[in-house]
Amino acid sequence: MLKAKTDEHRDSIPLLKSEIFKITDLKYTVSEESCFTISSYYLKDTWRQNIKTKNWGHPMHSMASRSGSFPPALADYFITNFSKVGDLVLDPYSGKGTAPYQACLLDRVGFGVDVTPEAYVLTGAKVHAIKHEEALDYLKSIRFGISKINIKETPEEVKIFFSTKTLSQILTIREKLLEDLELSTDSIDYLNGNVSHHAKTKKEQFAQYWLGILVGILHGSSSYSLSLPCSHSFSMAPNYTKNYAKKHSLKKPDRNVIQCMIEKSRYLQSAGIARISGKAYLGKAQDLPKSWEEKFDLIVTSPPYFTAQSYAWDNWLREWLLGFNFKEVRKQTTQTASYEKYSIEMYKFLKETYRVLKPNKRAFIVVGDVTKKSKEGKTIINTSKIIAEEGKKAGFGVELIINDDIPPTKRYNSSFLTANQGLQIDRIVCLKK
Ligand SMILES: C[S@@+](CC[C@H](N)C(=O)[O-])C[C@H]1O[C@@H](n2cnc3c(N)ncnc32)[C@H](O)[C@@H]1O
C-alpha cells in the first residue's frame, strides 16, 4: 500500500526515481473517513514538466488569454489517462474551452458548458473544427453595412480603450456576427433544465468562430490587439486605464479589424485543427440538459473557488462586445463568500455531474485553496474538502486528492501575481461513479 504524500513535499525536495508513480498504476482505497492524497510531484509524466515549456500545446488554445484557466497540459494528462479515442468528455465550467478543445485534439468529443457568454463563445469557436479557409469564405460573403449603433451611444468606459476608427469597425462587425449567431440578451434568461444557447448551423458556427477571435484580440498589447496596450487576460477597470493611459501617453491604435482577425485566425491554425468536432453550450453546471443521462465517459473541470475571481467583471469589456452587461451575467455565476451557499452550489453541480456520467467513470475536479479574511484574521479554506464531502453526498466515491503545489509566480492562472499573492495550492479531487 502506498503511503500518502502531502503538500509538505515541495519542489525543493530531491526525488528518488523509484518514488514516482504512474497514475493509472495507483491502487486507490476509498474509505468513509479519508481518502488517499498524493503530491503531483510524485506522479509520472504529468503536466508539471509541460507547463514549464512556454506555450505548451496547440496554438488554438491561445485564442484568448483568460485568468482562471488551467493549462492545456493538465487537461491533456487526465484525458489521455482516463478516456479513449471516441469517448465523450465534458467540462461543465469550460471557461475558454481548454479541456473540450484538448479532448477534440485527442480524438475524443469535447463538450463544454459555461454560464458567461464570452466563455461560451470562446469554447464554441474552438471546438467546431472550423477550417480557416471556410471561415474566410463566410467572412468575405458578409455585407458589412453601416452599423445601426451610433458610436456616440457607446458607453464612455468602452471608448477609453479604442480609437474612433477601430471602434466603428468593431461595432459594425459584431452587429452582423451576433445577428448570425442569434445570440442576444434573452439568451441568459436561463430556462430550468435547459441550456440557453448552442450553435447548431454552420452559419452560427462560423459567426461564433469569428466572434471568439474578436473576443481574443479585443484588448491586449500584441500587434493585432485592438485596444490601447493593456492586459490580455482580463478587462481592466475603466478609470484606472484612463488615468494610466494619460500618465504614460498610451496611444489607441487605428486597426484594420478584419485584417487583425484574419491574421489571428491564421496563427491559431498554423498547426492545423482538431479532426474531431465538439460542442459548446451556454448554460449552468448545476442544471445540465435533462437528455444527458449517463452520456459522458469523463469529466475534467474546475469550478469557481468562492470569490477568488469575478468572471463577469474580469471580462466586462468582452461581455459588452457580445451585447451583455456584466452585472446581469454576474447574477448567473457561482460567486459567493458564504461557506454554506458555496457548498450547496457545489452539491448541485456534483449531483448533475454524477447523473450525466456513465457508471464506473471518473470526474476530476480542480480547485484551489482560498484565503478568507474576517475580523478574527485570515483562514485558509481547503476547497477540495468541500468537493470531497459534497461529492460523497451526490453518490461518488472519493478516490484520490492530488496536491499541486506550484510556486505562485509560475502559476498558470495568476500571471499578474507576485510570489506573496494569490493561491498557494491547487488540489485535484478524483471522483468515481
Ligand atoms: C476556474 S474557471 C474554469 C476555467 C477553464 N478550466 C479554462 O481552462 O478556461 C470557472 C468557470 O466557471 C464559469 N462559471 C461560473 N459559474 C458558473 C455556473 N454556475 N455554471 C457554469 N459555469 C460557471 C466561469 O465563467 C468560469 O469560466
Give a nutshell description of this structure.
The protein has 15 helices and 10 strands. The chain is of the alpha/beta class and 433 residues long. Strand 7 and strand 8 form a beta hairpin.
Would you kindly provide a written description of the structure presented here, covering whatever features stand out?
Helix content is 35%, strand content 14%. It is of the alpha/beta class and 433 residues long. It has a single domain, classed as Vaccinia Virus protein VP39 (Rossmann fold, 3-Layer(aba) Sandwich). The strands form two sheets. An eight-stranded mixed β-sheet has the order 1-9-10-6-5-2-3-4, with helices on both faces. Strand 7 and strand 8 form a beta hairpin. Helix 2 (72-82) crosses helix 3 (98-105), helix 4 crosses helix 8 and helix 5 packs across helix 8. The longest helix is centred in the middle third of the chain and has 18 residues, at 164-181. The structure holds S-adenosylmethionine. S-adenosylmethionine (SAM) binds at residues 66, 68-70, 93, 95-96, 98, 113-116, 119, 284-286, 302-304, 311, 333-334. S-adenosylmethionine (SAM) binds next to strand 3.
